[in-house]
Write a structure and sequence with these properties.
With about 325 residues, the protein is of the alpha+beta class. The protein has 8 helices and 10 strands. The termini are close together. The N terminus and C terminus are likely disordered.
């Protein structure tokens, strides 16, 4: 097993890194005269950014081969140097690129150290139930219950690949936040006269299509091709259409419009009603605030957050114990 220790402070406040992390996302990117690999990495304590440059003698084709071989969701040894760049703490890997040839064998680490899930799923599940219970119309309440009940991945999937709520349980947490913010807007704007049943249904179901846009792989979730602005809304629309029996057609059409228009000016459908605009703004507020909170955290996973300073206890490689 690996022992728990502290990164070593290096020159100019930098940090030498030699530790196992889950690779959640691996992307090939262009640089002047070649390519590099950008990784989103995590362990139980948080998420981080890693840039794999390779050694000076390696060609763009060799770097690309390393990138294509990385399997998202697996644990890899990350060996390099962490520093603050443009206000963000990131790990830079040169010689350590060879450690990305194969993941760390599963018998060399404790799996519980590598699942990043900051959400209390029981609390979120109860919160969603309480929010749905505020819906008075039995047909709309039944619609929400049926759709959420027939989408088991809804409680585990992330809400995004990287930007916000990008962790196990993130989709459910984001949905609960969106519903709460939308309901607050309805109660705050004077003379708005919103249909709160429709508003809540639209908020609770606005991202339900995302549950079908990810699949579990190793310690992480991998986005499928359907993960697009249009793709997930189309999947969500199909899901609620299958469960629309017993709902007033006019109000159901309104709920469907909220789902299809919640991306506002960035989507193909524009919000046309106060309820649709409220869900759009609530969705954007939840996503933006969560991303801003994550950006202010130490982007090298560790139990002690220190702003943009790279450091803190992590799970570092060591000689396996007997």
């Amino acid at each position: 097993m690996f022992e728990k220790t502290i990164f070593v402070e290096g020159i100019n406040g930098g940090v030498q890194v030699d530790a196992p992390f889950v690779v959640d996302v691996a992307e090939l990117r262009e640089k002047k005269g070649g390519k590099y690999i950008q990784l989103a990495i995590s362990d139980r304590t948080g998420r981080g950014v890693c840039k794999v440059w390779g050694t000076p003698g390696q060609s763009a084709e060799q770097i690309e081969a390393f990138g294509l071989a990385i399997r998202a969701g697996e644990v890899y040894r990350i060996r390099g140097y962490a520093k603050v760049y443009n206000g963000t703490c990131e790990i830079n890997v040169n010689d350590g690129i060879v450690d990305l040839l194969a993941p760390v064998p599963t018998d060399m680490f404790d799996p519980s150290l590598f699942v990043y899930a900051p959400v209390d799923l029981d609390d979120v599940r109860e919160g969603l139930g309480r929010m749905a219970a505020k819906i008075v119309d039995p047909g709309i309440y039944s619609l929400v219950s049926r759709v959420m009940g027939s989408t088991p991945a809804f409680l585990e999937a992330p809400a995004a690949k990287r930007r916000h709520h990008a962790y196990i349980g993130g989709l459910a947490e984001h949905t609960l936040e969106t519903a709460g913010i939308a309901l607050s807007l309805a109660g705050t704007v004077s003379r708005a006269r919103m249909d709160t049943d429709v508003l809540l249904a639209g908020a609770l179901l606005h991202d339900v299509g995302k549950a079908a846009c990810f699949r579990r792989q190793g310690f992480s979730f991998v986005a499928l091709p359907d993960y697009t602005l249009v793709g997930h809304t189309a999947l969500g629309a199909a899901a609620i259409l299958r469960q629309s029996a017993g709902v007033d057609p006019v109000r159901f059409s309104h709920i469907l419009h909220i789902l299809m228009s919640h991306h506002g000016p960035h989507g193909e459908v524009q919000p046309r009603t106060p309820e649709a605009w409220a869900v759009h703004f609530a969705d954007n507020a939840s996503a933006t605030l969560r991303a801003a909170c994550d950006d202010t955290a130490d982007l090298v996973p560790g139990e002690e957050r220190r702003g943009a300073r790279c450091g803190g206890p992590v799970y570092r490689f060591s000689t396996p114990t007997e």
